[in-house]
Design brief:
25% of the residues lie in helices and 31% in strands. It has three helices and ten strands, in the order αβαββββββββαβ.
Length: 162
């Protein structure tokens, strides 16, 4: 994983930690839009976000091309993030969507819809939500983004169909 990606994850984790207390009493979840949030493909994703993810109800966010579920937010999504190139990170396939998973900030997990452009990332607080359910619930919107790469290698890609 690149230093840029790690810095982004660390910054977002800090943002989540700082705002987690606020989201419990605010109807709107404060989020930062991704660099490419204005991509038309992200607009299509945003208008099709499900009402529930990992059994959590959708919340209003204050940033373009974002979504959040739960009170406090246990799942947060951003569309328009830079896409990862080839990686040796864990990759799972859920309902025909490849997701690479960063476990380095557990219990906050970052799922990236691998090979989709623009990039889509989902942060799951495993103390509040299930990453497997989140990936399953968000697979249909991830499929709306063009796929340019797939996970390869039998030892790194596991398939989960729900």
């Amino acid at each position: 994983m690149s230093a840029k990606t790690l810095r982004g994850i660390a910054a977002f984790a800090a943002l989540v930690a700082l705002t987690s207390g606020l989201t419990a009493c605010s109807p709107t979840v404060p989020m930062e839009p991704a660099e490419g949030a204005n991509d038309p493909a992200c607009a299509k994703v945003t208008v099709n976000l499900p009402k529930t993810v990992s059994n959590l109800e959708r919340r209003t966010t204050n940033a373009q091309a974002t979504g959040a579920w739960g009170d406090p937010a246990g799942v947060e999504l951003r569309c328009g993030v830079p896409t990862s190139g080839p990686t040796t990170d864990l990759c799972v396939t859920v309902n025909d969507v490849d997701w690479i998973i960063d476990e380095s900030q557990a219990p906050l997990y970052r799922f990236e819809a691998y090979g989709r452009e623009p990039g889509l990332e989902v942060f799951v607080n495993s103390e509040l939500a299930s990453g497997t359910l989140a990936a399953t619930d968000l697979a249909n919107v991830a499929k709306m983004l063009p796929q340019v790469r797939k996970c390869t290698g039998y030892d790194t890609a596991r398939s989960v169909d729900q």
